[in-house]
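Hi Y.,

Following your request, here is the sequence exactly as I used it, all 79 residues.
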Amino acid sequence: MEAMNPEVLKIMSIAFIMGLGTIAPAMAIGWIGSKGVDAMGRNPEAAPKIQTGMILAIAFAEAIAIYALVVSLVIKFVE
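Below is the corresponding structure, written out as tokens. Let me know if you'd prefer a different format.
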């Protein structure tokens, strides 16, 4: 079996990083939103506090996707 071309390995690693780096945060954001809406439905008076926490948690989850994008761009453009 011949060795794989380094360019192919580079592209495959970028695809893997972006795939995992976007699917996991997307699932986390959906889960956070679902639980937040459930909590607001059970206790409407606490909605502002719940919403603030939800937005913060979603921002942190989205930051993970941005980190994955940065890592994949570094792999793509740095030789």
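The domain at 25-77 is CATH 1.20.20.10 (F1FO ATP Synthase).

Thanks again,
Q.
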